[in-house]
Design goal:
The complex is a heterotrimer of chains A (about 260), B (about 375) and C (about 475).
Chain A lengths: L1 E7 L3 E8 L2 E9 L4 H15 L7 E8 L2 H6 L5 E2 L2 H12 L5 E5 L4 E6 L5 E7 L7 H11 L6 H6 L12 H13 L4 H23 L5 E4 L6 H11 L13 H13 L5
Parallel strand pairs in A: 1-4, 4-5, 6-9
Antiparallel strand pairs in A: 1-2, 2-3, 6-7, 7-8
Chain B lengths: L1 H7 L5 H8 L4 E4 L6 H6 L3 E4 L21 H11 L8 E5 L3 H13 L5 E4 L7 H22 L5 H26 L7 H11 L4 H14 L10 E7 L5 H9 L2 E8 L16 H11 L10 H14 L4 E7 L3 H16 L4 E6 L7 H15 L10
Parallel strand pairs in B: 1-2, 1-3, 3-4, 5-6, 5-7, 7-8
Helix pairs in contact in B: 1-8, 4-5, 6-11, 7-8, 7-9, 8-10, 10-14, 12-13
Chain C lengths: L8 H13 L7 H9 L3 H10 L5 H23 L3 E5 L6 H4 L4 E5 H11 L5 H9 L8 H12 L7 E4 L6 H14 L3 E3 L8 H22 L5 H24 L11 H11 L4 H20 L9 E5 L8 H10 L2 E6 L14 H13 L4 H4 L4 H16 L3 E4 L6 H18 L3 E3 L12 H19 L14
Parallel strand pairs in C: 1-2, 1-3, 3-4, 5-6, 5-7, 7-8
Classes of the chains: A alpha/beta (about 260), B alpha/beta (about 375), C alpha/beta (about 475).
């Protein structure tokens, strides 16, 4: 039996199909104008590419934006918060995980789970661009580098420029100002990544850290932000075997299996 | 119940229109520290100011700043844009810094025909009580003078009796929603509360009695968990509906537009002014009272037990310091007692905020464990 | 996973002040370089600005007074005295009158941390945020109190809360700390009542506070003890009034940073010999500058009254930058405590005089009044007129909900009644994350160049020394 998870984020939409507890199939696309369309497209394409149909899905859970509408449109049997899905997804990949730091394109969350995958505590930031992927995008645009270059670039820096402002708008001005003064991009990148880590730490402090810690979401791919966070927490984060962006959808698919009564 | 909900969802309801149509006067107040009996005893209609989630604040923003609470900005907006022109008087109370600013700006731009500042102490020492007793007397005298009436002791006792009747109905509504089969949702209860604070006591008594009768054998809709809601001034019925829409039924509260408005009972003096002053100040369960946190905490703890609450949501409007800080304390103490808590900061009146609130409440419900799944009506 | 507890703000500031305490009474540039070299990079600039040549000797005196105050608290703790946290709007001389108690002012500590520590106050703010406290708290006290709550900082024996009536956020954080640490909280409420009745009520509250503190300390505040501090307080008042008058000269001979020093003295050490000594030096230096017609810039372009607080996270680029560009800082709202002489005839009159001082402390006086806008406006207008200001600036500290709620009324009325324009900024006066100093500078520049100098106000006021406007 196939169990499915659909996770609609702010920038990307993910679909995961599970058979016997492993990620059998997965897909990620850029979001469409509305979440229902995103869900229909991402899962539809995944099914089609694998010569499957919606009818092959035994149980589906939707999460993220528009999860309720996706359910009411009949594409999912249930909707669960992305918080719970991320928690369960991370735990299933690494059973020792107790803290999940998920930094997406436009929101950030820190989740604490217990050994059974139940939520212990959580905190979210989905109002302010600072502390989300959006901050890094803005900074990359200002620096004139691609998002995926930001992490590796800063690792070669000799020092880092300190960005004092927490507000993305002022931080942008600060970076421009440093560029005009001739500060090298590597140092700036290092400063940006550290600044990002600081913002994330502000959230982390709210719920506390318990090992093991896993980072998910798009920003998890930034090696420098990861390294800074590890230094600040004094903890080495575990690396899941799955693309961090898929963890939410994976968790949703696991929820689907759980809800249908199949053995975990 | 439908009539109550409809009337509670408009600022100038039919009762106010009727009252004004008879040539009678309406006096607005903001804070639950205001002894409404003084207003009622003068033959005036006490009207508790609400903003009902009004999201637009363009006029107000020219006076109050973006660092001031959205509820106060929304109130000011309605004060300045003419919505509250039916009021014949305003009673200011120093509920909080934002509210003080709200009143000052309102008076500055559009002075009210009658304006009185009732100064409420932040502490309940004997000196403070003495002071407030004089304040209530001055309040009475100001009303008498401006409206050309004499408020006798009997008038006050009668008003106290009327308001006690209303309070008794509200306590009954609460008992019905705190029970095993909650007879009223949180949204409905808020509507009842709002209604009772803007219509004559007699209308409250009559309509609430009917609602109580209507719901005496009520079976609640499916829900996932029993919640308690504590926090900032919120008259946003839609917000409560959103929270309940995710499956968390609000079975009790410690809200300003909630139990805090009517829980007071004791009257210990023969002098009605003294009785009112003591009752309103001593029982003021509000974080603006800076020496009283343990009592607020104990109130919440006992409500949790009484209403068999599964989890507590403590929320505050952005920039509300009195609740923002108190909630942290409450959260810590509740968790120490093993009670799950969701601490929420929100924008007042921002429907755009509802999505993020639903996500958090849903996650909270998932955390405290489903009792019944939404949509599973088999 | 628990890492070792970070060091608290009090301990770190004390360590810094131990260095200050050992400084000579005056220093050459080379000696100063050597001292600054011992400090973290973050703070070298701030300390360099505080010890700028034109104010160096007085600054050393002031900083040594502050060092004496804080190190005195450490000694007091070792001697078994009770340490009481007080907010800035509570006159500390009452506590100085006790032999067995010692006052620590939370906002002064926060400001010292911001000016003198590596990382400024941010980590302590982050500690407070980590507890779940909202980010619209006031950094002025939340920085120090965050340290108390979240680190191995000194723990006070009790807390006085003098903000009820004047400031909810200040009152709430003090209440929170008292419960969190399980220490007594002594409240001094300001009735929002300007009538005789209101004032009498305040006296009642003040007297009750004195009695409660005596009980807590297990010590009687005798007439002799009270007179000792009251007489010194009167000397401080005399000097403060002189300093106020000196501000009226054109160009202003009082250095910008003396605004901060004035309330540093008021909030920490009023009623002590050290305070008198510091104020005396401030007066002496200002008089000397008056005689020499000394002014840091070629021309005094603007004379600004800051309506409420200043900015503290970048001293060189705020106080010093302003006067180097000809923008005089005539004082801010925290200087508006309008000191008065205390009648020292009897215990009763002294206590009454101290109650009057408390009633007039900044913030209490302006926004603890019945009408915040009226009380505040009266003080700002008075200051502008008396000191010959040609502009006003509202720093717009994000957490000042009361002033923010009536700032628009102040701006309108100030213009209507005096023709003086007011710039409204936005930021966090103690933390640079919200609005960087470069933006603050730009806005001040724009305002002064395009609004103030064009209006050409301020002529014909005060004592002309240069013949220039």
């Amino acid at each position: 039996m196939l169990f499915a998870g659909i996770d609609i984020g702010s920038l990307t939409a993910q679909a995961v199909l599970l058979e016997d507890g492993n990620v059998t199939l997965s897909k990620s696309i850029s979001v469409k104008p509305n979440p229902v369309e995103s869900a229909r497209t991402v899962m539809g394409e995944l099914l089609e590419e694998n010569k499957l149909s919606w009818g092959d899905i035994g149980y589906c859970v939707s999460t993220g934006y528009g999860r309720e509408k996706i359910q009411s449109e009949g594409m999912a049997q249930e909707n669960v918060s992305e918080i719970s899905c991320h928690g369960l997804g991370a735990l299933s990949l690494v059973p020792q995980v107790r803290t999940v730091i998920d930094i997406g394109g436009q929101d950030a969350k820190v989740i604490r789970v217990d050994a059974g995958g139940e939520l212990v505590d959580f905190v979210m930031n989905d109002k302010c661009a600072a502390g989300t992927g959006r901050f890094l995008e803005v900074m990359c645009r200002t620096l004139g580098v691609a998002l995926e270059e930001l992490g590796p670039m800063s690792q070669g820096a000799r020092g880092h420029m300190h960005l004092s402002s927490r507000c993305s708008i002022y931080a942008e001005t600060e970076v421009l100002h440093y560029l005009q003064r001739g500060v090298d991009k590597a140092s700036l990148a290092a400063g940006i990544n550290r600044s990002m880590a600081h913002r994330v730490m502000a959230l982390v402090r709210r719920v506390g850290v318990e090992k093991e810690v896993l980072m998910s979401g798009g920003v998890a791919k930034n090696v420098a932000v990861r390294a800074e966070l590890e230094k600040m927490m004094n903890v080495k984060m575990v690396t899941p075997r799955l693309d961090p962006q898929l963890i939410g959808a994976f968790g949703a698919a696991l929820m689907a299996r759980k809800a249908s009564g199949a053995a975990c | 119940m439908r009539h109550i909900t409809e009337q509670a969802s408009v600022i100038e309801n039919e009762y106010v229109r009727g009252w004004k149509g008879e040539g009678r006067k309406v006096v607005g107040f903001a804070c639950i520290a205001t002894p409404v009996e003084v207003i009622e005893a003068a033959g005036l209609l006490p009207y508790r100011l609400t903003a009902l989630g009004n999201p637009s604040t363009e006029i107000a923003d020219a006076y109050l700043s973006r660092f001031n609470c959205g509820f106060c900005r929304s109130l000011l907006q309605l004060g300045l844009d003419g919505t509250y022109d039916f009021l014949d008087g305003l009673i200011e109370t120093n509920g909080c810094d934002h509210l003080r600013g709200m009143f000052e700006n309102w008076q500055y731009v559009k002075p009210s025909p009658f304006f009185h500042y009732l100064k409420v102490p932040h502490i309940t020492t004997d000196d403070a009580l003495d002071y407030f007793r004089v304040e209530v007397r001055l309040f009475k005298e100001a009303v008498e003078k401006h409206f050309g009436v004499e408020i006798k002791d009997d008038d006050l006792w009668r008003a106290i009796e009327n308001q006690d009747e209303v309070r008794e109905r509200l306590r009954k509504v609460f008992a019905m929603r705190e029970g095993g089969n909650p007879a009223f949702t949180g949204a409905e209860t808020l509507s009842i509360l709002l209604f009772s604070s803007v219509v004559p006591a007699e209308a409250s008594i009559e309509l609430i009695d009917r609602a109580i009768e209507e719901r005496k054998d009520h079976q609640p809709p499916d829900f996932r968990a029993r919640l308690m809601l504590c926090g900032s001034a919120s008259d946003e019925v839609d917000l409560i509906s959103e929270i309940e829409g995710v499956g968390g039924l609000i079975v009790t509260d410690a809200l300003c537009y909630g139990t805090r408005a009517f829980w007071k009972v004791e009257k210990e003096s023969d002098d009605p002014v003294v009785a009112l002053a003591d009752m309103y100040l001593k029982e003021l369960l509000c974080p603006r009272m800076f020496d009283d946190y343990p009592r607020r905490r104990d109130y919440v703890l006992s409500a949790v037990e009484r209403a068999a609450v599964d989890g507590v949501i403590v929320m505050h409007n952005k920039f509300c310091d009195v609740h923002g800080v108190d909630n942290v304390h409450l959260r810590m103490d509740l968790e120490r007692h093993g009670i799950p808590v969701l601490q929420l900061e929100k924008e007042y009146g921002a429907k755009a905020d509802f999505g993020r609130i639903r996500t958090r409440v849903q996650a909270f419900l998932e955390k405290i464990g489903d009792r019944r799944k939404v949509g599973d009506r088999a | 996973m628990k890492t070792s507890a970070p060091v608290g703000l009090f301990d770190r500031v004390s360590s810094m002040l131990e260095i200050i305490d050992r400084l000579p009474d005056d220093m050459s540039d080379e000696e100063l370089e050597g001292v600054l070299g011992m400090l973290p990079a973050d703070v070298r600039q701030s300390m360099g600005a505080i010890f700028a040549p034109r104010v160096r000797k007085t600054s050393i005196t002031f900083m040594k007074m502050i060092a004496g105050w804080l190190l005195g608290a450490r000694r007091a703790r070792l001697e078994g005295k009770k340490i009481i946290i007080v907010p800035f709007n509570f006159p500390p001389e009452l506590i100085h009158a006790f032999d067995t108690m010692y006052p620590i002012t939370s906002e002064i500590l926060s400001t010292l941390g911001v000016m003198g520590l590596e990382g400024q106050g941010e980590r302590y703010w982050d500690m407070a945020m980590g507890l779940g406290l909202p980010d619209h708290m006031c950094s002025s006290n939340t920085i120090e109190l965050g340290s108390i709550l979240g680190s191995e900082d000194f723990k006070p024996n009790a807390i006085i809360s003098a903000a009820p009536g004047g400031c909810d956020v200040n009152a709430k954080i003090h209440e929170f700390v008292s419960h969190y640490l399980d220490i007594p909280q002594f409240i001094l409420e300001k009735p929002v009542d300007d009538s005789v009745r209101g004032r009498e009520q305040y006296s009642k509250y003040y007297r009750k506070l004195v009695a409660d503190l005596e009980d807590f300390a297990g010590e009687e505040l005798t007439e002799a003890k009270l007179r000792r501090v009251a007489e010194k307080a009167n000397e401080c008042t005399e000097l403060c009034l002189e300093l106020w008058d000196l501000h009226k000269a054109v160009p202003c001979p009082v250095p910008n940073i003396f605004s901060l020093f004035t309330y540093g003295v008021r909030f920490a050490m009023w009623g002590t010999d050290e305070a008198v000594g510091t104020l005396q030096e401030m007066v002496d230096l200002s008089k000397k500058r008056l005689e020499e017609k000394a002014y840091p810039a070629e021309k005094e372009v603007a004379r600004c009254v800051w309506a409420y607080t200043s900015y503290y996270f970048d001293v060189p680029n705020f106080f010093n930058w302003m006067e180097e560009n000809g923008f005089t800082h005539l004082g801010d709202g925290l200087d508006f405590f309008f000191p008065q002489y205390v009648d020292t005839s009897s215990r009763d009159t002294i206590i009454e005089g101290m109650a009057e001082s408390a009633w007039n402390m900044p913030m209490t006086r302006q926004v603890g009044g019945e009408s915040m806008s009226v009380s505040w406006m009266e003080d700002v207008i008075y200051a502008c007129r008396e000191l010959g200001a040609n502009c006003a600036i509202f720093c717009g500290h994000h957490s000042c909900k009361q002033t923010w709620s009536v700032a628009s009324i102040l701006r309108t009325e100030l213009m209507k009644r005096t023709g003086i324009p007011m710039l409204v900024l936005q930021g966090d006066a103690w933390i640079k994350r919200m609005t960087p100093m470069s933006v603050v500078q730009d806005e001040i520049n724009e305002f002064i160049r395009n609004v103030v100098t064009r209006k050409r106000r301020g002529r014909g006021r005060g004592v002309r020394t240069t013949g220039e406007a």
